[in-house]
Write a structure and sequence with these properties.
By secondary structure, the chain is of the alpha+beta class. Helices cover 27% and strands 29% of the residues. The protein has a 6-stranded antiparallel β-sheet, with helices on one face.
Length: 112
């Protein structure tokens, strides 16, 4: 499962079981898309293998030695729960990298 939260508090939750994508808008409105399992699997594989979401914590998130009081509110955050039980939490206030924007565009497209 991927929880992905971006600018203005819009968030997406992608779940393989059951296959669903939920968009939660800033005003709290929920929208759900239920793509075929095959398409959802492709989206998740693309996110892992092409966008390399597993590296985002190292590539796009700030240094671990930053004083928490100096940290701005994050522009985006992601929580990934892998099938092996591993959980990865990432967030950054340092802009929206290309891969983050690509994932956001792909998710938003499912609701158009």
């Amino acid at each position: 499962m991927i929880d992905f939260i971006v600018l203005h508090k819009e968030s997406y939750q992608v779940s393989r079981t059951p296959p669903a994508i939920v968009r939660i808008q800033q005003d709290g409105a929920l929208q759900t898309a239920a793509p075929p399992s095959k398409n959802l699997g492709k989206l998740l594989k693309w996110t892992v293998h092409t966008l390399e979401i597993f590296w985002w914590g190292e590539d796009y998130c700030g240094s671990a030695d930053v004083d928490p009081e100096d940290v701005e509110s994050p522009l985006w955050s992601a929580r990934v729960e892998y099938s092996n039980g591993e959980i990865q939490d990432m967030e950054s206030a340092n802009g929206l990298p290309g891969h983050v924007l690509e994932l956001l565009a792909a998710l938003a497209e499912l609701f158009e």
